[in-house]
Design a protein that fits this description.
Layout: H1 6-21, H2 26-33, H3 37-49, H4 55-65
Helix pairs in contact: 1-3, 1-4, 2-3, 3-4
Length: 66
């Protein structure tokens, strides 16, 4: 996967948060976004650890974890 900008990661986080909260499985999220399973897992893990709705803050956490 090519390196995404912090803004792109934040946009993905918003989509992943919405899909995951509606019960969409990790594999389906990965396929819908065209990203790796590791990326979706990293986003979901960061979302669990940071309950705020600040997508940019979560994006920074995701960026550091990749």
């Amino acid at each position: 996967m090519e390196k995404k900008s912090i803004e792109e990661i934040a946009a993905d986080i918003k989509v992943i948060r919405e899909l995951a909260s509606s019960g969409t499985m990790l594999q389906d999220i990965k396929n819908q976004l065209g990203v790796s399973e590791e990326y979706v897992s990293a986003v979901m893990l960061c979302l669990q650890g940071y309950q705020e709705d600040d997508d940019m803050a979560v994006a920074r956490l995701v960026e550091m974890s990749l």
